[in-house]
Amino acid sequence: MFTRWSTAIAAAILLSSPALLQGASAADKPTDPQIAHIAYTAGVIDINAAKQAQKKAKNKDVKAFAEDMLRDHEAVNKQALALVKKLNVMPEDNDTSKALSKQAGDKLAELDKLSGAAFDKAYVANEVAYHKAVNGALETQLIPSAGNAELKSLLQTGLKIFQGHQQHAEHVAAELK
Amino acid sequence: MKPGRLASIALAVVLLSIVVPARAATIQITMENLVVSPAETSAKVGDTIEWINKDVFAHTATAKSGDFDVMLPPKKSVMSVLKKAGTVDYYCRYHPNMKATLKVEP
Ligand SMILES: [Cu+2]
Fold this sequence. Notes:
heterodimer, A: mainly alpha, Ferritin, 6 helices, disordered N terminus, B: alpha+beta, Immunoglobulin-like, four-stranded mixed sheet, binds copper (II) ion
C-alpha cells in the first residue's frame, strides 16, 4: 500500500514540475492557445476530483475543501472561457493537456476504489501534490510563456488562488493525520 | 487678502460643516485579486460598510470574533451596518490569506 502510494505521488510530482510541459517539447514555449487549453484542462481535472470527493468524502473538512475547489476552479474556468472568446482564441489541445487528462483519469479510477477515511486521505494528499504541480507549471512555464497580457494576468490570479488551495490542502492533510 | 481666496475659504468652511457632524458614514472596503484594501479601516458604530467584491470568486468577510460573517458573491457589493465597537480581525473563509482589520469606535 505504501509503495503504491509513493509511486502515485512520485508520478504526480514528476508529471508536475518542469517535466509537466515536456510533452509540449521543452525547447519551444507553449503558445497562448495551448496555454489556455492546459490551464482550462487543469481546472476541469480539479473540478472532477472535487465532484468525486463530494460524493465520497466523509470528513467535514474534506467536504468543505472539495466545495471550495469546485467554486474557485469553476470561477477561474468561466473567466478563462470568457477571455478566449473575447480574444477570439481557439484553445488548442496538446500533449501536455493529454498527459494531464490521462493521469487524472487514472487517479479518479484509483480513488474510486477507496472509501471512508482512506479516500479522504488519498484525495487530500493528491490535491496537495496536484496543486503543487500546477503551481510549479504556472510559475515556471505557463506564466512566463504567455504572450497576451490578459491571459498572463488571469494565470497570475490563478496562481495566487491555487497557492491558497495548496496551503488549504496541506492544512487539511495535516489535520487528517 | 484676495476675494478669490476668501471665497474658497468660505467654501471650505461650508464643506467642512457638511462633513463634520457625526452622521453615519458609508465606508468602502474592496476585495480585488484576493487582496482586501484597505488592510486597516476605522469606522464608528452606526457606519455602513460597503463591501465590494471585484473578483470572479466568492469571498466572505468573517470576523474572527464571530461578530459578523458577510457573504460576498462574485462581482457584487454588499452593505452592512456596524453595530458593535471594538477592533475586529476578519478574513475570508474561502481564502484565509485574505485578512484585514476593522476598528470600530463607539
Ligand atoms: Cu475569498
